[in-house]
Amino acid sequence: MRRHSDEQSPTSDPRQDEVSKTRRKAQMHALQDLGEALVALDPAKLAQLDLPERLVDAIGQARSIRAHEGRRRQIQFIGKLMRDIDPVPVREAIERFASGVPSDRAEFAAAERWREEMLRDDAAVTRFAEERPAADAAALASLVRDARAERSRGGPPHRYRELFRKIREAQ
């Protein structure tokens, strides 16, 4: 009779401790899906997650890969790296980011209101800059002019979006 230091009790089935291949694959795919969500996540929010440097580098590389097969393999690699961390806090953080903290939604809505007011009224830029000294009034005024011109000619809303980003930064 062989003796092992990690010998099971005679009543326990060693197969009960094993994870089935199907379950391992499901776990692997779940980690890859989580990795894809991390790749799609805003870099500022990604920085808040306190992930290992190697994983952050892999996510950054995945963002730059455009070839389908190369990206797929990079996502697999990210899933492999995620086996070394606890995915529960990461998943919860992504869900929290997706649902949006109420204060984030309020700030977002306020920025939208400021943008629309600036596009309607030239004095709104001055009022915004007075309330927020960090705001660059000249840059905002220039973006407002450009956004109005975009709207009038029906072009893509590049300056309109950039105006929103500048307002959010100043908030």
Structure description:
- The chain is 74% helix and 0% strand.
- The protein folds into two domains: 79 residues, PSPTO4464-like domains (Diphtheria Toxin Repressor, domain 2, Orthogonal Bundle), CATH 1.10.60.30; 69 residues, Diphtheria Toxin Repressor, domain 2 (Orthogonal Bundle), CATH 1.10.60.
- It has 171 residues and is mainly alpha-helical.
- The protein is elongated and about 75 Å long.
Q: What labels describe this entry?
A:
2 domains; Diphtheria Toxin Repressor, domain 2; 171 residues; elongated
Architecture blueprint of SSEs:
Blueprint (H helix, E strand, L loop, with lengths): L13 H4 L3 H20 L2 H5 L5 H12 L3 H15 L4 H13 L2 H19 L2 H9 L5 H17 L4 H13 L1
CATH superfamily of the largest domain: PSPTO4464-like domains
Distance from first to last alpha carbon: 74 Å
- Strand percentage: under 5%
Any guess at the CATH architecture of the largest domain?
Orthogonal Bundle
| Integer average pLDDT | 85
- Uncertain regions spanning at least 5 consecutive residues: 1-5
Q: H/E element string? A: HHHHHHHHHH
Quaternary structure type: single chain
CATH topology of the largest domain: Diphtheria Toxin Repressor, domain 2
Q: Considering DSSP H and I runs of 4 or more, what fraction of the residues is helical? A: over 70%
> What is the CATH class of the largest domain?
Mainly Alpha
Total domain count: 2
Strand tally, please?
0
SS-based structural class? mainly alpha
**Number of continuous helical runs:** 10
Task: Report the C-alpha radius of gyration, rounded.
Answer: 25 Å
State the shape.
Answer: elongated
**Main β-sheet description:** none
